[in-house]
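A reminder from the course coordinator: this example appears on the midterm review sheet, so study it carefully.

Given structure:
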């Protein structure tokens, strides 16, 4: 039985990850900003395998409180899934700086806050999967989504830096483009379901080698250009 932490577990990819890990018999520490009915139902049917710990990843105090509420046992996998779309209007002439700050607080600082809170419980072989986007790759030929794309690019670089520093301890990190997923963010006409994406993330979490710590991959395991 593995013990996994999942931020953004209330819906979408995070909820699908939680359901799949419960089905596999793993212990799931779900960290949603606010629990959904679907997550509460999953917890009720899990036989105690899944517990819910409300967590706003943009808040130091909230992250520390959520981590403290999960006990002190070892953590095998941490999935940083929580995210926001950020401002999507044309921002060449002006920008919503409050929305920019929120985007970076959740999607760049948030994963680091959560890792800091759980790192004392992560030993050799533990894995951290940071969910990014192809929009964060400098090779991706698409404009717009300035705050979102910039935040994901920052997360990619942050993950690589942390991976270098944690490699001697045997903690493995990776950033994964989850695909264009049928979620609230991706929309109903996206290419793959949340279950398909989550299955790919689980496989990567189980197999990611230390030699590729800090790497960037697609949900199906293929390398992604930076």
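Designed residues:
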């Amino acid at each position: 039985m593995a013990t996994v932490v999942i931020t953004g577990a209330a819906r979408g990819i995070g909820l699908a990850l939680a359901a799949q890990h419960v089905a596999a018999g793993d212990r799931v520490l779900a960290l949603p900003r606010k629990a959904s009915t679907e997550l509460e139902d999953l917890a009720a049917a899990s036989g105690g395998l899944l517990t819910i710990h409300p967590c706003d990843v943009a808040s130091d105090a909230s992250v520390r409180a959520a981590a403290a509420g999960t006990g002190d046992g070892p953590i095998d996998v941490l999935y940083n899934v929580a995210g926001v779309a950020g401002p999507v209007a044309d921002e060449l002439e002006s920008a919503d700086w409050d929305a920019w700050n929120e985007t970076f607080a959740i999607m760049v600082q948030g994963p680091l806050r959560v890792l800091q809170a759980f790192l004392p419980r992560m030993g050799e072989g533990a894995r951290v999967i940071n969910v990014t986007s192809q929009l964060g790759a400098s090779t991706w030929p698409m404009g717009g989504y300035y705050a979102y794309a910039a935040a994901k690019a920052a997360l990619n670089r942050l993950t690589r830096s942390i991976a270098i520093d944690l490699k001697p301890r045997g903690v493995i990190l990776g950033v994964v483009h989850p695909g264009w997923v049928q979620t609230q963010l991706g929309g109903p006409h996206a290419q793959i379901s949340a279950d398909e994406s989550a299955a790919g993330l689980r496989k990567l979490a189980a197999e990611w080698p230390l030699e590729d710590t800090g790497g960037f991959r697609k949900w199906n395991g293929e390398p992604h250009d930076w």
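The helical segments are 12-23, 37-44, 60-68, 97-118, 146-166, 194-207. The mean pLDDT is 94.
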